[in-house]
């Protein structure tokens, strides 16, 4: 699975990972995140509210290279 996700991420700017709850989607993607990338989880209510209420400021805070891993 890791190899497939890496190949997809090199070809496409965005990928959606879906599946049932509690099967390891977040853990897998966090593990695959590059060391120099910040993982941003929209599961965190504070971060989700910030992204929803201040989208421009949110994107400034997580400026390019945008963390390609939004969970």
TrEMBL record:
InterPro entries (UniProt xref): AAA_14 (IPR041682), P-loop_NTPase (IPR027417)
Stretches assigned to the AAA domain: 13-64
What domain of life does the native source organism fall in? Bacteria
Protein name per its UniProtKB record: AAA family ATPase
Q: Which organism is it from?
A: Zhenpiania hominis
